[in-house]
């Protein structure tokens, strides 16, 4: 048996309940996160077949996608959204699952609360009926999104059958340029790979740029793994990881902590282990980026111009770019900085953690939002909101004219009252710029929190440097 | 899940790449708690346009969807698969599928036929020229045939997925037979693993 293994292979091997002859395995799941949108039909399926939840103690639910970000103490005005939240409450109470409801300080976007409660730990397997489950890979956990049938499968058995996986390394060495953020790192990866470069593989982010990121930054990068086509994205746990986790509510303590850290250190990819594919990038590529199109791979540096569809090689890409420019109402050759913005959204599981809010507040401090620009600053969870308010960030935002909201997915997707109107253009710190993603006919530009804040102040696409 | 051996019929040509699951079923439609009724949401934003291909009379009743590359990327919503199937499609042909979508399809009996982009384009043109073009997706032989343009190509499908399609097997039932293995594994998990209770 070969002894050199990658991080993800080690985590995988540690969770094989049963290996089948064709290379597929039954994989044990350590943590199953549940939210109101992708779970109702799974619970219904359980009831219909007379099954129950095998490990309610390894299952945690929260309300995030549908919730309004104002007046959370009141019932949800939208009847169907309210029904979905009520259904989650009924299901979790019937099956004995912990649920963090609106207004609870532990409530928030499912991918924000797992890590901050210490429920997500290195070396674990984590699943959720949500493609951005890859976020948890920042801790060296094997974390991926699943469909509703699989949610039902995990509820019933705490396992998932999995085919053999390809591994991929994405190495970013060198240093980040001035003004670059973790969001720009992953947008630069997208610029390189497009939306399908990850081919469903389990990717490991490595190299000095990745090692230099904070946990929040690593979560931002891993969050968008699915956007470039990877199934999961992992980062080897190190001292930064351990410092973040120590003392969190569900993290081990005392002797168990020491034992865990020893085990976690051993997870790093062995020096001579090989990957099925490898991409190598340099930190200097990660300058501030912005998307100009209708998929996250249609992205370019802010200091550049909207590309000409004819500049793309394949006919597919040319067509897609032409369609995107039409939908986005942009002209080829237009400077990115000349794009006027109606709405700025700072939030989502990509960029709603305390560090993101601190960075945006630092840019906003002492400035005012440009006239006519609508803003939403939406903390990722009750705990993030509490911390931000303790640090006075809410006041900085409010003083600058930003709208400070209550936690939830908000304008990341058009399932709650925070939506774009047709033709309305946003600079958004979320992860998807698909047609209609933020509201029917809405036009989305994905950016970092710093760029979003600067853009709100100037009224067109801007970086913090443009403010001085 | 019902057994699926052969899908035979006419197709709708959706000549677009990167059709993500937000387009297949916009998020407004995800608020239901039932498992049915999603056909109304299928491509709902595009279907409002009169000249959208699915609105054309000559494609009414088609049970196969032909699409450009990167079909079903993006959000994990299984509602996308439900919407496609509840509308009446039994197979989707594309050069490349979003991995979660492809996996969700296997749980519901929707056949994802992944074949070379040039062959997909050939089928697309054939269907655009003659909407009555007959397509046969044979799960048992793992081949797709379009006799009128001499296409007879293999498509990938793992043995275990094929077995489940042919027999119409329920994944959960199969796993429950391994309950002893699961209990054995659970007994060996490290004590520091967190639990949500408390
Ligand atoms: S913030 Fe957006 S991407 Fe993240 S879980 Fe919510 S809806 Fe999904």
Give the end-to-end Cα distance of chain A, rounded to a whole number of Å: 60 Å
Largest beta sheet: strand ordering of chain A: 5-4-3-6-7
User: Which ligands appear in the coordinates?
Assistant: iron/sulfur cluster
* Biggest contact: A-B, 83 and 59 residues
Q: Class by helix and strand content of chain A?
A: alpha/beta
Task: Please describe the biggest sheet of chain A, giving its number of strands, its sense, and whether it closes into a barrel.
Answer: 5 strands, parallel
- Biggest sheet of chain B, strands in spatial order? 1-6-7-8
Rounded mean pLDDT of chain B is 94
Helix content of chain B: 25-40%
Report the sheet-strand fraction of chain A: 15-25%
Q: What is the subunit organization of this protein?
A: heterodimer
| Tally of DSSP β-strands of chain A | 18
Keywords summarizing the entry:
heterodimer; A: 468 residues; alpha/beta; 4-stranded parallel beta sheet; 18 strands; 31% helix; B: 198 residues; 4-stranded antiparallel beta sheet; globular; binds iron/sulfur cluster
Question: Topology, pairings included?
Answer:
The complex is a heterodimer of chains A (468) and B (198).
Chain A: H1 7-13, E1 16-19, E2 25-28, E3 31-35, H2 40-48, E4 59-62, H3 79-95, E5 98-100, H4 110-116, E6 125-128, E7 142-145, H5 148-157, E8 159-162, E9 167-173, H6 182-193, E10 202-206, H7 208-211, H8 215-223, E11 232-234, H9 239-245, H10 255-265, E12 277-282, E13 289-291, E14 299-301, H11 315-328, E15 343-346, H12 354-364, E16 374-377, H13 382-390, H14 393-399, E17 425-428, E18 443-446, H15 449-458
Parallel strand pairs in A: 3-4, 3-6, 4-5, 6-7, 9-10, 9-12, 10-11, 15-16, 15-17, 17-18
Antiparallel strand pairs in A: 1-2, 2-8, 13-14
Chain B: E1 6-9, E2 11-14, H1 21-24, H2 44-47, E3 64-67, H3 79-87, E4 91-94, H4 99-108, E5 111-114, H5 117-129, E6 135-138, E7 143-146, E8 151-154, H6 159-167, H7 171-176, H8 179-187
Bound molecules: iron/sulfur cluster.
